[in-house]
Write a structure and sequence with these properties.
mainly alpha; rod-shaped; SGS3
Length: 147
């Protein structure tokens, strides 16, 4: 009986030790689980904060992009209008210059014709003189070449 009793006591003691071991292990796992949950909550909060900050940065960047695009479109339109005005003014000045040069050429031709006709019979011009006056001048060729 004593040996049976010792055997039961020994078995109960072993079972108690096992129970204590598993209880300690369960407590340790519980603390570890709680620590992981707290870490998860902290990391999740940081992630939410970072995502919100990223959303705000993207939104501000998009707004700035739109503002810059509008400004660039405005500047493009402004400069296109200025360039058109400059081209129109240049065209007008070129037309005036051509008219002035054409009038000047006519005056020169009339002056030269008067000089030649004073020596010859009035109203008759030979073909050589007519060809000379009807040919393009160097100045009119240069103007035509640059336009």
């Amino acid at each position: 009986m004593r040996s049976y009793h010792e055997m039961v006591v020994k078995e109960v003691t072993e079972k108690n030790q096992q129970l204590n071991y598993y209880m300690n292990k369960a407590e340790k796992e519980k603390r570890h689980s709680k620590s992981l949950a707290e870490s998860f909550n902290i990391v999740s909060a940081k992630l939410r904060k970072t995502m919100e900050e990223s959303r705000i940065v993207r939104q501000r960047t998009q707004m700035q992009h739109e503002e810059h695009k509008e400004e660039m479109d405005y500047q493009e339109q402004f400069f296109k209008e200025k360039i058109k005005i400059i081209h129109d003014e240049m065209d007008k000045k070129e037309e005036n210059l051509e008219k002035h040069q054409h009038q000047q050429e006519k005056r020169e031709m009339v002056g030269q014709m008067n000089a030649y006709t004073s020596n010859a019979v009035r109203g008759t011009i030979n073909e050589k003189h007519l060809a000379y006056f009807s040919r393009p001048t160097l100045w009119s060729c240069l103007i035509h070449w640059f336009t």
